[in-house]
Amino acid sequence: MRTHSATIPAGLPVGDTCVDLLVVGSGTGMAAALAAHESGLSVLIVEKSSYVGGSTARSGG
After folding, report:
1. What is the pTM of this model?
2. Number of structural domains, the chain?
3. Average pLDDT over residues 30-41
4. How far is CA 51 from CA 6, 25, 47, in A?
């Protein structure tokens, strides 16, 4: 299993990346990303916040 983690500053040009599934938002999307990864797909999660979890992380449960 390959694991990649990166924070890219806003406004910085980003190169092309090819993945099987693009997940926008790491809240509920994290479950979809995990299921896809466990099925053998390459996954990229894009999150606008500086922390993982989106609104789900702030909801308190």
Report:
1. 0.62
2. 1
3. 93
4. 12, 11, 8
